[in-house]
Amino acid sequence: MLTQPLMEKLLAMRLLGMVEALKTQEQDRAITELSFLERLSLLVDQQWSWRENQALARRMKMAKLRGPACVEDIDYRAARGLDKTVVRALAKDSTWVRNHENVFVIGPCGVGKSFLASALAQKACRDGYSALYLRAATLFRDLDLARADGSLRHLLHDSVASMFWSSMTGPWLR
To answer: How sure is the predictor about 174, in pLDDT bands with cuts at 50, 70 and 90?
Structure first.
């Protein structure tokens, strides 16, 4: 089979990761030493990784997080009263989201509540959950408007299956 029709068929089937991997394989002369199944496995692995990366990028974009925060960057040395074991337990597999549990981050101004909230939301996105970062004022305004126009049930069903917010700002996870 000619390469161009194959590429067109892969594109038509939306296998963009596989197209990229095939182009890479065409340029690598050492790839011919691999068996058919090994090459096919590389193509499938590339497609799988591509789809996972696209899904993560979509979840991160929809989360509207403020700044690059991740749980690996949390500084426990600062005197903020953070319990390292609690934060690590929350970050591990984000099971609190799956169990529909809530986390409230409270404290004085400037201690990193928003950073911690964003970091946990980003970890939840990496674990396959959707998140949405909202200021509390925006959230309460949206809830009031939804109650007034009769769409509160719809808003709650779509957006608020599980919530997580940090005193005045924070993400909502579903």
So the answer is: very low
